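[Solved] Which block belongs to which protein?

Original post:
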Amino acid sequence: MPPRNVAILLFDEVEVLDFAGPFEVFAVASELHDGQLFRVFTVAATVDPIHARNGLSVNPDYGCNDAPHADVLIIPGGIGTRSLLDDCTLLNWIAATSRANELTLSVCTGVLLLAKAGLLAGLRATTHHQVIDLLRHVAPNTEIVTDQRYVDNGRIVTAAGISAGIDASLYVVGRLCGEAVSTRTAAYMEYYPAL
């Protein structure tokens, strides 16, 4: 089986750990298995550099129009999600990609983009504790969970704030590749989540 493509969405004012944590988890899991598990890349509206939270400049691998098929799509959060809530082109891309893939994972306020893309109706979801009320407003037909680090709906997994994206990514790696792969990845990263 070829490696699964893992696409991580980038945008201006994305929270750094929201995308860098999952990037590390999926990349390390694959590295520990001779690159056979995942091919991780970043996607943005264009390939122009984006400026993440606190000024980090990042060069996306692909623009949305030329990105390879994503088996796994990761939607990070950050204050930059707010300006994207009315970006129909991006929301349509998220919806189309999520409907055609194996799994979509949101981290923190990335869940707002999933809600606006119409992907959370009738599901359970979580987000950063400071954004619960906004999520309730944006996703009135979604059951909001406030006491879990991540919530698994099958094809849609949502994670709470920032570092919870690492926990959720390790969970997804375990779900897709087996718990031994997830445990080995966490040990290599010296990451011991308090779940």
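(Second protein starts here: sequence line, then its structure tokens.)
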Amino acid sequence: MPELRELLTHGGYGDPRTYVQSGNVVLSSKEPSEQLARTSERLISERFGFDVDVLVRTRDELSEIVERNPLGDVATNPKRYQVSFLSEEPDPELIEALAAMAAPPERFVAIGRELYAWHPDGVARSKLWAKLAGQGLGVTATARNWTTVTTLLAMAEGR
């Protein structure tokens, strides 16, 4: 992660900070989100020699995601509550199929480019988690647990 921070600093981004080892970065930029994502992908490819999809959310978007918290009334363990961030809104038929995979007591809510999923019994046997963690969504996606989501927002807000 120090090399990623250095790369982004040299790429012209302000104060890049990373969280855990899964590619979470908070930084300052005046670039539009899509341009920031494409530039970051190019820099990573050139420096590290592999291609990776980059998804960007602004501080305001991340704040809205946390404020929405559609499963906050039931999600009591932040490590079992996940948000999948998508590059674009998924097909409505996919949303229906995902919702059907949520085996009680799991819960699932799709709002725009985010999918919220509560796995109270863990993810080990969850068919929903397997689908959310896989490549079959038809869009670029990455999932983070609620602890990571709220920590990234706190970092973006300078806390």
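Accepted answer:
You had them paired correctly. Confirming on the second one: Strands lie at 14-19, 24-28, 81-86, 107-111, 114-118, 141-145.
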